[in-house]
Specification:
Helix content is about 50%, strand content about 5%.
Length: about 140
Amino acid sequence: MPALRLSPDEWIVRLYGADIAGEELDAVRDPVEAALWGMAIRVLQLGVDVILEYGFWAQSEREEYRRSAASIGARSELHFCDATEEELLHRLARRNAQPPFGAFQIEEERLRGWIRVFERPTAEELYSREVPQPG
């Protein structure tokens, strides 16, 4: 699909380096995501699709972004790749052993914490949301 993919992790590594971790990483994530979302809004207004490679851990966060997209006339889709905790930990170990470009080390305990707070998308969330056309 022709689209602009925006990955906060890649931007964080470019701006702050691959050695960023812990509280420092947490402190820069929100501002980077906000800047990328600002760019995404402009790109959507130009009629180009955008893929946000964000965690979207909570349903409320997903809904907030979808409402914002709808407010500028953009449709939205949520793509969810399901994996067991065991598989996620295996992928993390492999990633940490040889981090790809644009990635940084993530501690296993940090991933386990994210797994505990993650809200699995509902079936309804996985439907594409078209923007209602005016009357």
